[in-house]
Design brief:
Double Stranded RNA Binding Domain; disordered N terminus; 3 helices; seven-stranded mixed beta sheet; alpha/beta
Length: 207
């Protein structure tokens, strides 16, 4: 009888351990399916004045809240795609917004648009806007990496001054905040691009 009671008392403990393990595994499998693309400007330049047009292609404008843009993939330990990473804004819109916020912070009036009419004083035409996000969802952690590539044609008073390209990458591995890791590497890559590009672009446009 004593043995039977001891075995019976072990049942709740076994159930608790089982549930805890299930929760742990479930938590470890988390990853971001959608990414918050809010950008916090670094204020890399100051003392700006006047207007800057930041142009992206018209087909990169989100036409409906139902549209989701694929920014990358989620893979498992075997390097097989198991999901995709989405954003409510296109890569071009994300990068356009980052440039706009940086130059606004510097004191410029920024006009985001999709067309160049040729008479604007200062224009940044974003000819290339690529964001590549990848997450690898492992049992005990998650890895995330991001690559951002930006091509910019710089115009002043209708004349092409320079064609530039910027690239930045970021990667992280973590065992917590797994659903925020993709956002984190995206933000780091964008900030790296802005720190490279904004001072150079301001210098060119100020000549």
């Amino acid at each position: 009888m004593k043995t039977t009671i001891e075995k019976f008392n072990l049942v709740p403990l076994v159930m608790i351990i089982t549930v805890a393990c299930m929760l742990l595994v479930s938590g470890c499998a988390r990853y971001a399916r959608t990414v918050n693309t809010f950008y916090d400007p670094s204020a890399t330049v100051r003392s700006g004045s006047g207007s800057i047009y930041v142009i992206i292609p018209e087909n990169q404008i989100t036409q409906s809240s139902d549209v989701k843009w694929v920014l990358g993939n989620v893979k498992n330990d075997d390097n097989k795609n198991i999901d995709e990473v989405y954003s409510s804004r296109s890569p071009a819109e994300i990068i356009q917004a980052a440039f706009s916020q940086e130059f606004q912070k510097a004191g410029y009036t920024v006009i985001p648009t999709t067309k160049r009419i040729g008479t604007e004083e200062r224009v940044l035409d974003l000819t290339t806007s690529k964001i590549e996000l990848e997450q690898i969802s492992a049992v005990m952690d998650i890895k995330a990496k991001c690559r951002v590539l930006v091509g910019v044609d710089v115009f002043k008073n209708g004349q092409l001054l320079k064609r530039l390209q910027y690239e930045a990458t970021s990667s992280k591995t973590d065992v917590k905040d797994r659903d925020l890791l993709a956002e984190s590497v995206l933000q780091e890559s964008l900030k790296s691009i802005m720190k490279q590009a904004v001072p150079e672009l301001q210098n060119i446009l100020s000549r």
